[in-house]
Known about the structure:
- By secondary structure, this protein is an alpha+beta fold.
- The protein folds into 2 domains: 4-159, Gcn5-related N-acetyltransferase (GNAT) (Aminopeptidase), CATH 3.40.630; 172-341, Aminopeptidase.
- The chain has helices at 14-28, 41-48, 50-53, 101-115, 130-138, 178-198, 211-226, 276-290, 305-312; strands at residues 4-7, 58-63, 72-76, 87-92, 120-126, 142-143, 153-159, 172-176, 230-236, 242-250, 259-267, 295-301, 316-326, 332-341.
- The strands form 3 sheets. The chain has a 7-stranded mixed sheet, with helices on both faces. The protein has a 4-stranded antiparallel sheet with strand order 1-2-3-4, sandwiched between helices.
- Strand 9 and strand 10 form a beta hairpin.
- The longest helix has 21 residues, at 178-198.
- The radius of gyration is 21 Å and the shape is globular.
Amino acid sequence: MTARIEENPSHPRLPDLLAAYHLVNQAEKGTAVETVAQLPAVYRAEVEDPAGAFAADTVLLATPPGEDLPAGCVVLKAPQGSRAPEIKRLWVAPEARRKGIAQALMAEAMRRAAVSGAPAVRLTVWNWREEPLALYRALGFGTVASWDERPDLLCLEKPLPERPTRPVSADRVERLTPDEVRAHAPAGLAALLLDAVDSGASVGFLAPLAVPEAAAWWTRVAEEAAEGVRDVWAAHGPDGSLTGVVTLVRGGTANGRHRGEISRLLVHRSARGGGLGHRLLATAEAHAAATGLTLLVLDTQTDSPAERLYRSAGWTAAGTIPDFAADPAGVLRATTLYHKRVG
């Protein structure tokens, strides 16, 4: 299950989250204070009146599954002039960390920035904050020229895809348990694989692909998930149907446990064009970084739509192999290998 995201600058829990953020931030900067009243005026104003302080901005809160109160927040600042919108105040309560809440907040903030037509989003982070920095790198943020000259402060930016041609996907993305993979294998997951093959995607199968063969492949994936070798995330549409999936395979050798492979990123044709592929990919990347992986790899058919997605998400091409794999029609195609550091 994923966290529930809501926009509410007047939520009664928000002042506590902002207070915790600023008190920890002051301590990390070497200017610790004990109470909100001792914070610099601009920060104190945010805690005392978030709705007023962020009146022009988008304030998002995340509530963990099964909980009643938000445990995290983030602010997407309104763009100023020609500058890209800035993400600020990302905070997750310590007891709720490593549950994907920060990733969910970032994904929603970036989704909303994309909806607004922004070409990029930006943020700043202190260079000693290793975990947040790893998350931002995993999400495709790169270091850019500084717009804030404070020592030790890094300025990062991430390009966003062009405004989608269809409404931005609001489909729910969640990690599947092995039992859920087994349950979805004969229908939803098999249908995604069949749709990919029917649309010409080179995903390891030739056309025509039969449902039993697709279901059997996903049943083997469920076993790998049970063994801890592979993680699976699926996107659920408003009617509960599966609209996309991505898997992360962990390195199995003693000298490769730091890396993983993105495999079978599939988005149904009916759900393409709304950024769902980017969301699924970002979810897997962020989880990889949060669980100790530092390097991700993948391969995809050269000059395919998938390749354009990976490039836009900050992946680096390592090289192209001619005639590496057959497409669904049996024609040999070139494959490009990609890598991305996430930690």
